[in-house]
């Protein structure tokens, strides 16, 4: 049963666009549906982790706003960080799910128990995952991914009871 959910950021939680502002630094778009999906997962006891290659204060702000404290940024090797986390929490690969969208995600996508990518990911990423979410990154794809995990774990009725 999946209990640990790992999320990429750029291209998954966002549409991949990064806007630079002269006065405010970096601007990213996050979808509100993804936020509610993350909150659902937390209410059901899932542990969420952010694994991203970029280092961004905007990402940190959004994640902390959603109650995600496990934020790992600036990673050149996501699998190495995942292995440290796995060792620390004592779970096996089958207990983990990951959604990523690019070449630097492939090794981890192949490792976890359940993997997914967004509909606008490159074909070579789609070829290695268990599920291609029918939504583009930054437009609610994480929500769809989380709902799929909840359904696979037989917990959908609990979600309906919450709301």
From TrEMBL:
Record bears the keyword Metal-binding: yes
InterPro entries assigned to the protein according to its UniProt record, in alphabetical order: CMP-NeuNAc_synthase (IPR050793), HAD-like_sf (IPR036412), HAD_sf (IPR023214), KdsC_fam (IPR010023)
Catalyzed reactions per annotation: 3-deoxy-alpha-D-manno-2-octulosonate-8-phosphate + H2O = 3-deoxy-alpha-D-manno-oct-2-ulosonate + phosphate
GO biological process: lipopolysaccharide biosynthetic process
Residues where Mg(2+) binds: 8, 101
The protein's enzyme class: hydrolase
Alphabetic keyword roster: Hydrolase, Lipopolysaccharide biosynthesis, Magnesium, Metal-binding
Residues given in the record as substrate binding sites: 10
Cofactors (names): Mg(2+)
Molecular-function annotations in GO: 3-deoxy-manno-octulosonate-8-phosphatase activity; metal ion binding; N-acylneuraminate cytidylyltransferase activity
EC number(s) recorded for this UniProt protein: 3.1.3.45
Quaternary structure annotation from Swiss-Prot or TrEMBL: Homotetramer.
Family: Belongs to the KdsC family.
NCBIfam families hit by this protein: KdsC-phosphatas
PANTHER family given in the database record: HAD SUPERFAMILY MEMBERS CMAS AND KDSC, N-ACYLNEURAMINATE CYTIDYLYLTRANSFERASE-RELATED
Protein name, entry field: 3-deoxy-D-manno-octulosonate 8-phosphate phosphatase KdsC
Species this protein is from: Deferribacter desulfuricans (strain DSM 14783 / JCM 11476 / NBRC 101012 / SSM1)
UniProt lineage: Bacteria, Pseudomonadati, Deferribacterota, Deferribacteres, Deferribacterales
GN (gene name): kdsC
């Amino acid at each position: 049963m999946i209990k640990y959910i790992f999320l990429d950021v750029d291209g998954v939680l966002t549409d991949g666009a990064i806007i630079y502002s002269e006065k405010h630094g970096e601007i990213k778009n996050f979808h509100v549906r993804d936020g509610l999906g993350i909150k659902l997962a937390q209410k059901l006891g899932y542990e969420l982790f952010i694994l991203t290659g970029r280092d961004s204060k905007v990402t940190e702000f959004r994640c902390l706003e959603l109650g995600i404290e496990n934020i790992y940024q600036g990673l050149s090797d996501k699998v190495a960080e995942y292995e440290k986390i796995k060792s620390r929490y004592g779970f096996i690969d089958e207990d983990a799910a990951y959604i990523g969208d690019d070449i630097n995600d492939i090794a981890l996508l192949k490792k976890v128990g359940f993997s997914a990518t967004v509909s606008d990911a490159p074909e070579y990423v789609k070829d290695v995952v268990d599920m291609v979410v029918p939504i583009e990154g930054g437009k609610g794809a994480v929500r769809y991914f989380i709902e799929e995990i909840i359904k696979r774990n037989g917990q959908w009725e609990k979600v309906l009871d919450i709301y």
